[in-house]
Amino acid sequence: MPISRREALTRIGSAAAVAAGATLIARARWDRGIVGEAHGAQQPQVRDFRAQGGDPALPEMAIARNDTDPSALTAKALAALGGMSRFISRGDIVVVKPNIGWDRAPIHAANTNPDVVAAVVKAAFDAGAKTVVVTDVSCNEANRCFQRSGIWKKAYEVGADVVLPADHRFRNMRLRGELLDDWPIFTPLVNADKVINVPVAKHHNLARFTGAMKNWYGILGGRRNRLHQNINVSIADLSTFMRPTLTVVDATRVLVRNGPQGGNIDDTVEMNTVIASVDQVAADAFACTLIGAKAEAIPYLQIATDRRIGTMQWDKLRVKEV
Q1: Share of the chain above pLDDT 90, in %
Q2: SS3 state of residue 54
Q3: For 230-239, how does the pLDDT look when each residue is reduced to its tens digit (9 = 90+)?
């Protein structure tokens, strides 16, 4: 049923309380594992949310195509990867991170399709998640982005707590990256048991392509546009820091030019594809081909491969197409 603005704001207040509680619980987890390979003069900090163990024979990437229903495509991709229960345990606090950067409608393909987001949230609850938080740090005014994208409504309807960015939810952290060192980090995105990255695949006028790895810009506060001067290293630093439980790339409708904000429907193409992967680099390496780009031409994919965050040779993984 449609929700009123008053009901939505009430839900936001409840979500804020949940997020605050999660912050207190997770504060004790904050210092877990400074790991990863050294690159440069310092050891980067890593927030590693990857699921441990499991069946090593399961696919590492699933590509679902040829269905006009984004929810069905998402469900097919997750099932082909082994199901959400492969990643989520009963009682987990799960954060789902779509791209909600822009004050655009779903048809513009500048944000993640709301039905894809809702399908991921539902799958997490079905796998036993205690709480699922949907959040992002928007580029345009957040309240308008969350509403016009359709994500607020769709996520709320399937039981997610929708959390808008606010100053008190940021905390300065030392990322120890090659470019990114001390920076305000959006704490709901790092104070969780599991994190699912749910970007939209699209063109980007500086990075050439934006998907999973570039989506981590949405964990940053401050003047993040300053990072555009060395965008490829900043993306690699963020992907070094954030190791998600799962990546689900929305390529149901793809913005093939004039990204990342778009605004012209003629710049979009229906591709009816969803990619799910345990390797965020491989997910981007495949997804960039949907806008006609080659992984070898995207510098941050090569940097990430060199750092062993993942591999740009996605076709070398165990891939299942459905």
Answers
A1: 83
A2: coil
A3: 999 999 999 9
Reported pTM: 0.87
Q: Buried b / exposed e across 62-83, counting CB within 10 Å, b at 16+?
A: bbbeebeebbebbbbbbbbbbe
Cα distances from 134 to residues 94, 96, 143, 204, 298, in angstroms, run: 9, 5, 14, 24, 29
Supply 139's token pair: 């580029």
What residues contact residue 83 under an 8 Å CB cut-off, 6+ apart?
A: 127
Contact 160, 196 (CB under 8 A): no
Nearest to 256 by CA among 295, 199, 202: 202
Distance of CA 306 to the CA centre of its chain: 22
What is the Cα–Cα distance from 249 to 101, expressed in whole angstroms? 15
Contact 145, 103 (CB under 8 A): yes
CA dihedral 273, 279, 284, 286 (to 10 degrees): -60
**Which pLDDT band, with edges at 50, 70 and 90, does 26 fall under?**
very low
Overall size of the chain counted in residues: 322
Evaluate whether 276 touches 77 at the Cβ level (below 8 Å).
yes
- CA 272 – CA 320 distance, rounded (Å): 16
Distance (Å, rounded) from C-alpha 236 to C-alpha 238? 5
185-207 pLDDT, tens per residue?
999 999 999 999 999 999 999 99
The number of beta carbons lying within 10 Å of the beta carbon of residue 219 is: 26
Cis peptide before 56 (omega within 30 of 0): no
Strands 268-277 and 61-65: antiparallel
Contact status, residue 248 vs residue 218, Cβ threshold 8 Å: no
